[in-house]
Specification:
single chain, 233 residues, alpha/beta, 7 helices, 15 strands, elongated
Length: 233
């Protein structure tokens, strides 16, 4: 696992790095620190990190802006903000932040978030789909949403679309445990891939829009908050 820490204050930057090094104590984990978000972006583009700890209040580029730029490069990145200001939480959701840790960081909470990411990286949930008479395997995390089209289901993924003859209600029951939500009679979305809510639809992180039934808007908001809370340990 590759971890980066970005904080303009050397005291906190070195403190977090030292604590992570002590907690993981593994040759399989690399921890690197940065005082400048622009330098982190340059390194990230060449060799992405799995997890980043970002201070929100930095002079040249604040942590939220930095997180957006990193998220544009990688959707799989785990982002943890270092701050004492909870009012940033809603903005942080837009970049799918995993958690907020208050400075000075509590070591037990730091251990929890690292263990959570490590366990998630070891897990790989997959979905078996019957397409054109053949079985294919899709990684759950690559799925954006399911769309009912007559007697078929179009599965929209990062790598393209797959058409399967299946019932959307069966997919709903099968996928709810993986953080999927039926927002419309014809659509099931991945809560992890939602970028933002607009009037009667959601924008997924690939830019596509998915309609939300009027009666499901509040339920979707509730599901998103529960989902974010569950991922925040």
């Amino acid at each position: 696992m590759r971890i980066a820490v970005c904080d303009d204050e050397e005291k906190y930057r070195q403190e977090i790095k030292t604590r992570i090094d002590r907690l993981v104590n593994s040759l399989d984990v690399i921890v690197e620190s940065y005082s400048d978000g622009r330098e982190l972006i340059r390194k990230f583009e060449k060799n992405p990190y799995d997890m980043v700890f970002l201070d929100i209040e930095m002079p040249d580029m604040d942590g939220i802006t930095l997180a957006r730029k990193l998220r544009d490069i990688s959707e799989k990145l785990y982002i943890v903000f270092l701050t004492g200001h909870v009012e940033y939480a809603l903005t942080g959701y837009e970049v799918n932040a995993l958690r907020y840790l208050t400075k000075p960081v509590d070591e037990d909470k730091l251990r929890e978030v690292i263990r959570f990411v490590s366990d998630r990286m070891k897990q790989k949930h997959q979905l078996r789909v019957r397409e054109a008479g053949e079985d294919i395997i899709l990684d759950i995390e690559s799925v954006l949403y399911f769309e009912a089209q007559d007697q078929y289901i179009c599965i929209h993924t990062d790598s393209g679309e797959h058409l399967s003859r299946y019932n959307i209600s069966e997919y709903e029951k099968e996928l709810i445990k993986y953080g999927f939500f039926r927002c419309h009679r014809s659509y099931i979305i991945s809560l992890a891939r939602v970028k933002k809510l607009v009037k009667n639809s959601v924008i997924m992180d690939d830019g596509s829009g998915v309609p939300v039934s009027r009666g499901n808007i509040q339920a979707l908001k509730d599901a998103l908050y529960v989902f974010v809370d569950s991922r925040s340990i």
